[in-house]
């Protein structure tokens, strides 16, 4: 039961994150991202109900992040997601 709650909290945060929060987390986890990229990613995430614990949904999200912020940033974000989901 605790695992589902943890997943719900993380997914909720992902689906409601702001560009400012994204910049803060990127800095915290040493992921290079600029304000424009953060805004694009946050806009994409908002209201999508993406489950980052689902491999297919996470892969789709990473592809969208690569479009918005570049492949290197997408790889770094994917590393972070893997840490959170395993």
UniProtKB/TrEMBL annotation:
Protein's name according to its UniProt entry: DUF2624 domain-containing protein
> Which organism's genome codes for this protein?
Neobacillus massiliamazoniensis
